[in-house]
Amino acid sequence: MDIKRSQLARLFYGLPGAVSAYHFIWAWTGSAAYRNPSRRIFTIGVTGTKGKTTALELINAILEAAGKRTALLSSLRVKTGEGSERNHTGNSMPGRAYIQHFLGRAVRANCEYALIEVTSQGVAAHRHRFIKWDMGVLTNLHPEHIEAHGSYENYRAAKLSFLRYVLSGGGEVFLNRDDRESGFFFDALSSVPLRYSKDDEFVKGCMPRIEAARHAEGEKAPQGFLLSDFNKEHIAVAAAIGRRLGVDDATIERAILNFGGVPGRMEFVREGGYTGVVDYAHTPDSLEAAYRAVKPKPTPEHPHPRLIALLGAAGGGRDRWKRSAMGAAAARWCDEIILTDEDPYDEDPGEILDEIEKGIREIDPAKAMRVRRVLDRAEAVRAGFSMARAGDVVIGTGKGSEEWIHVRGGGKVPWSERDMFERAIKEKAAHDR
């Protein structure tokens, strides 16, 4: 019986258009079953390569500060009103009518706004369809999921398809003026989109006040949200949407000032003179941005601080092209590099590290000679802090707030990057005392 099922499954997946039709039917069925809930709630979708979760959380913070009741669905969590829980589906944009069910829950909880993370693979599976989107946002676009879509152009087309769908239903689209692909989307869309930028007058005007307020509050100020250039882009779109929805500037500023960041996204861990950073960056561009943001600067007390990177890449055939480029990014910005597991799946972990190391060697052969390879990620974290000196920064990328390391045969190893960083940095500080 199992053999027959397997044969039928292969036959089904081999039929042209069968998989697309399957997902389309699920999208339509979910909308009908839950009585089109998006028509009864203001729905905002955020897509892009990087920053979707942070942008959503900032928008949510601004709306909550304005007294609005919100629901949120992202790779990190599922929230309806006061209730919030981790997203355990393993998918940022779950299928099989999950989104319609979420919207129905939001309506029943009397939420006024639903904020949803929109992925290219979710769009390819029609999960954005039969939803009335009131606003759609593109944060940025960089090469990602190339194997899944067949080409970068197909990946970009999936993002464009979502934005066109928003416009076709009467919604508004926001484009990031600072992104290199914004011109393509601006020209490709039938309606003129709204644009935002970290150089918007409102953002440039409020940032000095927010920075001054944080400095004045010292340790009482939220420490988990870095006011870097890429986060200023997220602030810009959240502020633009807030203002478009009638939230006053003072409320927006207060929400940004009190925003504590997102777990696993530029999350800082400090003890004594040591600093650790946990971040989800997993593309060459996002690595460059993360390394640039946390690269320690010399001070009289620490004249030669170092950036120590823990770096891996996902296996399972996922975007193999980017591994050497990620290694090159680390070579350009990091003083010491430890290569380790991220999610090897069924690939040989050593071969994944070979491909990353190739990129390091092409940029800096001398640095490549110093690279350490520690496959066990827990041991790699300890190794990073054991070699750290006061003033150094240890950054781990690729895992963020993920709860598992995916290994061979579908196995999953429980994991918390932040917990491991906290343990290792405390051990280091205690050793020094």
Chain-wise SSE layout:
Elements: H1 2-14, H2 18-33, E1 42-47, H3 52-65, E2 70-73, E3 77-80, E4 83-86, H4 98-108, E5 113-117, H5 120-124, E6 135-138, H6 146-149, H7 152-168, E7 172-176, H8 182-188, E8 194-196, H9 201-217, H10 229-244, H11 249-258, E9 267-271, E10 274-278, H12 284-294, E11 307-311, H13 322-333, E12 336-339, H14 349-363, H15 365-370, E13 372-373, H16 377-386, E14 393-396, E15 404-406, E16 412-414, H17 417-432
Helix pairs in contact: 2-4, 3-10, 3-11, 9-11, 12-13, 13-14, 16-17
Describe the structure.
The chain is of the alpha/beta class. It has two domains: 19-262, Mur-like, catalytic domain (UDP-N-acetylmuramoyl-L-alanine:D-glutamate ligase, 3-Layer(aba) Sandwich); 267-432, Alpha-Beta Complex (Protein-Tyrosine Phosphatase, Chain A), CATH 3.90.190.20. It contains 17 helices and 16 strands. It has helices at 2-14, 18-33, 52-65, 98-108, 120-124, 146-149, 152-168, 182-188, 201-217, 229-244, 249-258, 284-294, 322-333, 349-363, 365-370, 377-386, 417-432; strands at 42-47, 70-73, 77-80, 83-86, 113-117, 135-138, 172-176, 194-196, 267-271, 274-278, 307-311, 336-339, 372-373, 393-396, 404-406, 412-414. The strands form three sheets. Strands 4-3-2-5-1-6-7-8 form an eight-stranded mixed beta sheet, sandwiched between helices. It has a six-stranded mixed beta sheet with strand order 9-10-14-11-12-13, sandwiched between helices. A hairpin with a 5-residue loop joins strand 15 and strand 16. Helix 9 crosses helix 11 (249-258) and helix 13 (322-333) packs across helix 14. The longest helix is centred in the middle third of the chain and has 17 residues, at 152-168. The model has no long low-confidence stretch (mean pLDDT 93).
